[in-house]
Amino acid sequence: MDLKGNGGVAADEIAKLASAALDCELTRSERVRFLHMLLTSPVARAEMERLLQLEKSLRDVARQSVGIGPGAEFDAAVAERIAADGKPPSTDEVGSPADDAARLRVHPIGHSAPTDRLEWEDHGVIAPGETRRIHIQKSGKGAYHFRIRSVEPVEIEIHHMHRRGHRVAAHRTRVHGVHYASLERPRTDEVLVVTNMGAHPIGIEVSAGQPEAVRVA
Q1: CA gap 6, 14 in Å, rounded
Q2: Which of 62, 79, 167, 173 lies 20 to 30 Å from 156, alpha-carbon distance?
Protein backbone atom coordinates (compact mmCIF):
# COMPACT_ATOMS: atom_id res chain seq x y z
CA MET A 1 0.00 0.00 0.00
CA ASP A 2 1.34 3.42 -0.92
CA LEU A 3 1.36 5.57 2.20
CA LYS A 4 3.22 8.57 0.82
CA GLY A 5 2.02 12.03 1.69
CA ASN A 6 0.20 12.58 4.94
CA GLY A 7 0.79 16.10 6.13
CA GLY A 8 4.48 15.47 6.72
CA VAL A 9 3.96 12.25 8.71
CA ALA A 10 6.16 9.46 7.36
CA ALA A 11 4.58 6.27 6.09
CA ASP A 12 6.58 4.06 8.45
CA GLU A 13 5.46 6.16 11.42
CA ILE A 14 1.80 5.72 10.44
CA ALA A 15 2.34 1.96 10.18
CA LYS A 16 4.08 1.80 13.58
CA LEU A 17 1.34 3.83 15.28
CA ALA A 18 -1.40 1.68 13.77
CA SER A 19 0.35 -1.53 14.81
CA ALA A 20 0.95 -0.24 18.35
CA ALA A 21 -2.70 0.86 18.59
CA LEU A 22 -3.87 -2.68 17.86
CA ASP A 23 -1.50 -4.02 20.51
CA CYS A 24 -2.67 -1.39 23.08
CA GLU A 25 0.91 -0.13 23.39
CA LEU A 26 0.36 3.57 22.71
CA THR A 27 0.96 6.16 25.39
CA ARG A 28 -1.85 8.59 26.17
CA SER A 29 -0.33 11.32 24.00
CA GLU A 30 0.23 8.85 21.17
CA ARG A 31 -3.40 7.68 21.40
CA VAL A 32 -4.64 11.25 21.15
CA ARG A 33 -2.39 11.89 18.15
CA PHE A 34 -3.34 8.67 16.39
CA LEU A 35 -7.06 9.20 16.99
CA HIS A 36 -6.71 12.64 15.40
CA MET A 37 -4.96 11.01 12.43
CA LEU A 38 -7.78 8.48 12.05
CA LEU A 39 -10.34 11.25 12.08
CA THR A 40 -8.53 13.45 9.56
CA SER A 41 -6.31 11.28 7.36
CA PRO A 42 -7.61 8.81 4.73
CA VAL A 43 -4.08 7.39 4.57
CA ALA A 44 -4.03 6.54 8.28
CA ARG A 45 -7.52 5.03 8.10
CA ALA A 46 -6.53 2.89 5.12
CA GLU A 47 -3.50 1.53 6.96
CA MET A 48 -5.55 0.85 10.09
CA GLU A 49 -8.21 -0.97 8.08
CA ARG A 50 -5.50 -3.07 6.38
CA LEU A 51 -4.08 -4.15 9.74
CA LEU A 52 -7.55 -4.78 11.16
CA GLN A 53 -8.36 -7.07 8.25
CA LEU A 54 -5.09 -8.94 8.77
CA GLU A 55 -5.77 -9.29 12.49
CA LYS A 56 -9.31 -10.54 11.79
CA SER A 57 -7.98 -13.19 9.41
CA LEU A 58 -5.45 -14.40 11.98
CA ARG A 59 -8.09 -14.40 14.73
CA ASP A 60 -10.49 -16.42 12.57
CA VAL A 61 -7.79 -19.01 11.97
CA ALA A 62 -7.07 -19.21 15.72
CA ARG A 63 -10.75 -19.60 16.58
CA GLN A 64 -11.16 -22.36 14.03
CA SER A 65 -8.19 -24.14 15.61
CA VAL A 66 -9.15 -23.92 19.29
CA GLY A 67 -12.87 -23.15 19.11
CA ILE A 68 -12.81 -20.20 21.49
CA GLY A 69 -11.99 -16.51 21.37
CA PRO A 70 -10.71 -13.98 23.93
CA GLY A 71 -13.10 -13.56 26.83
CA ALA A 72 -15.47 -16.13 25.35
CA GLU A 73 -17.00 -17.20 28.67
CA PHE A 74 -17.85 -13.63 29.65
CA ASP A 75 -19.10 -12.84 26.14
CA ALA A 76 -21.35 -15.90 26.21
CA ALA A 77 -22.87 -14.88 29.55
CA VAL A 78 -23.50 -11.35 28.32
CA ALA A 79 -24.96 -12.58 25.02
CA GLU A 80 -27.30 -14.92 26.87
CA ARG A 81 -28.66 -12.09 28.97
CA ILE A 82 -28.97 -9.78 25.97
CA ALA A 83 -30.92 -12.45 24.09
CA ALA A 84 -33.37 -12.87 27.00
CA ASP A 85 -35.39 -9.76 26.15
CA GLY A 86 -38.36 -10.80 28.22
CA LYS A 87 -36.38 -11.31 31.43
CA PRO A 88 -35.88 -8.09 33.42
CA PRO A 89 -33.07 -7.68 35.98
CA SER A 90 -33.69 -8.90 39.49
CA THR A 91 -34.73 -5.95 41.68
CA ASP A 92 -33.11 -7.38 44.81
CA GLU A 93 -29.74 -7.32 43.02
CA VAL A 94 -29.83 -4.17 40.91
CA GLY A 95 -32.62 -1.97 42.27
CA SER A 96 -35.50 -0.59 40.21
CA PRO A 97 -35.22 -1.72 36.56
CA ALA A 98 -37.12 1.33 35.28
CA ASP A 99 -34.90 3.72 37.21
CA ASP A 100 -31.71 1.94 36.14
CA ALA A 101 -32.72 1.82 32.47
CA ALA A 102 -33.23 5.58 32.40
CA ARG A 103 -29.75 6.33 33.74
CA LEU A 104 -27.96 5.57 30.44
CA ARG A 105 -28.71 8.22 27.83
CA VAL A 106 -27.42 7.94 24.27
CA HIS A 107 -27.90 11.19 22.38
CA PRO A 108 -28.97 10.45 18.77
CA ILE A 109 -27.90 13.75 17.22
CA GLY A 110 -24.32 13.94 16.00
CA HIS A 111 -22.04 16.95 15.58
CA SER A 112 -19.33 17.70 13.04
CA ALA A 113 -17.01 18.83 15.87
CA PRO A 114 -17.00 18.65 19.70
CA THR A 115 -19.53 21.01 21.31
CA ASP A 116 -18.45 20.69 24.95
CA ARG A 117 -15.89 22.15 27.34
CA LEU A 118 -15.30 19.04 29.42
CA GLU A 119 -11.94 17.45 30.11
CA TRP A 120 -11.68 14.11 28.36
CA GLU A 121 -9.58 11.00 28.89
CA ASP A 122 -8.84 9.12 25.70
CA HIS A 123 -9.53 5.37 25.76
CA GLY A 124 -8.36 4.47 22.29
CA VAL A 125 -9.99 2.95 19.24
CA ILE A 126 -12.64 0.25 18.90
CA ALA A 127 -12.03 -1.67 15.69
CA PRO A 128 -14.85 -2.86 13.40
CA GLY A 129 -16.56 -5.89 14.90
CA GLU A 130 -14.80 -5.44 18.23
CA THR A 131 -16.24 -4.89 21.72
CA ARG A 132 -14.89 -2.88 24.63
CA ARG A 133 -16.13 -2.99 28.22
CA ILE A 134 -16.13 0.22 30.26
CA HIS A 135 -15.90 -0.90 33.89
CA ILE A 136 -17.07 1.66 36.44
CA GLN A 137 -14.40 1.71 39.16
CA LYS A 138 -15.66 4.68 41.18
CA SER A 139 -19.25 5.63 41.96
CA GLY A 140 -20.45 9.14 41.19
CA LYS A 141 -23.35 11.34 42.29
CA GLY A 142 -23.54 13.15 38.95
CA ALA A 143 -22.94 11.72 35.49
CA TYR A 144 -20.04 10.20 33.58
CA HIS A 145 -19.95 11.38 29.97
CA PHE A 146 -18.80 9.49 26.89
CA ARG A 147 -17.76 10.97 23.56
CA ILE A 148 -17.72 8.70 20.51
CA ARG A 149 -16.23 9.70 17.18
CA SER A 150 -16.27 8.26 13.68
CA VAL A 151 -15.36 9.81 10.34
CA GLU A 152 -17.69 7.45 8.45
CA PRO A 153 -21.21 6.34 9.44
CA VAL A 154 -21.01 3.42 11.88
CA GLU A 155 -23.67 1.46 13.75
CA ILE A 156 -22.82 0.81 17.40
CA GLU A 157 -24.49 -0.97 20.30
CA ILE A 158 -24.16 0.06 23.94
CA HIS A 159 -25.37 -2.35 26.62
CA HIS A 160 -25.65 -1.19 30.24
CA MET A 161 -24.87 -4.26 32.32
CA HIS A 162 -24.36 -5.25 35.92
CA ARG A 163 -21.28 -7.36 36.46
CA ARG A 164 -23.35 -10.42 37.32
CA GLY A 165 -24.59 -10.43 33.74
CA HIS A 166 -27.90 -8.60 34.20
CA ARG A 167 -28.75 -6.25 31.35
CA VAL A 168 -30.22 -2.93 32.43
CA ALA A 169 -30.64 -1.19 29.07
CA ALA A 170 -29.52 -1.46 25.46
CA HIS A 171 -29.14 1.17 22.76
CA ARG A 172 -28.27 0.90 19.09
CA THR A 173 -27.37 4.08 17.26
CA ARG A 174 -25.61 5.40 14.18
CA VAL A 175 -22.45 7.39 14.81
CA HIS A 176 -21.15 9.89 12.26
CA GLY A 177 -18.96 12.72 13.49
CA VAL A 178 -19.13 13.31 17.26
CA HIS A 179 -21.81 11.71 19.45
CA TYR A 180 -22.38 11.81 23.19
CA ALA A 181 -23.73 9.45 25.85
CA SER A 182 -23.97 9.75 29.63
CA LEU A 183 -24.50 7.47 32.62
CA GLU A 184 -26.25 9.09 35.57
CA ARG A 185 -25.24 8.11 39.11
CA PRO A 186 -22.70 5.47 38.03
CA ARG A 187 -22.02 2.59 40.43
CA THR A 188 -19.03 0.31 40.83
CA ASP A 189 -20.99 -2.82 39.95
CA GLU A 190 -21.75 -1.60 36.42
CA VAL A 191 -20.25 -2.14 32.96
CA LEU A 192 -21.00 -0.49 29.62
CA VAL A 193 -20.44 -2.91 26.74
CA VAL A 194 -19.74 -1.01 23.50
CA THR A 195 -19.71 -2.91 20.19
CA ASN A 196 -18.65 -1.47 16.85
CA MET A 197 -21.11 -2.97 14.34
CA GLY A 198 -19.72 -1.08 11.35
CA ALA A 199 -16.80 -1.22 8.94
CA HIS A 200 -14.79 1.69 10.33
CA PRO A 201 -12.98 2.30 13.63
CA ILE A 202 -14.46 4.55 16.30
CA GLY A 203 -12.72 6.53 19.02
CA ILE A 204 -14.04 6.67 22.57
CA GLU A 205 -13.31 9.21 25.32
CA VAL A 206 -14.58 9.48 28.90
CA SER A 207 -15.15 12.51 31.13
CA ALA A 208 -15.73 11.40 34.72
CA GLY A 209 -14.42 14.35 36.73
CA GLN A 210 -12.17 12.12 38.85
CA PRO A 211 -9.06 10.03 38.08
CA GLU A 212 -9.24 6.29 37.39
CA ALA A 213 -13.03 6.33 37.55
CA VAL A 214 -13.34 3.84 34.70
CA ARG A 215 -11.28 1.05 33.17
CA VAL A 216 -11.68 0.10 29.52
CA ALA A 217 -10.86 -3.47 28.53
Answers
A1: 9
A2: 62
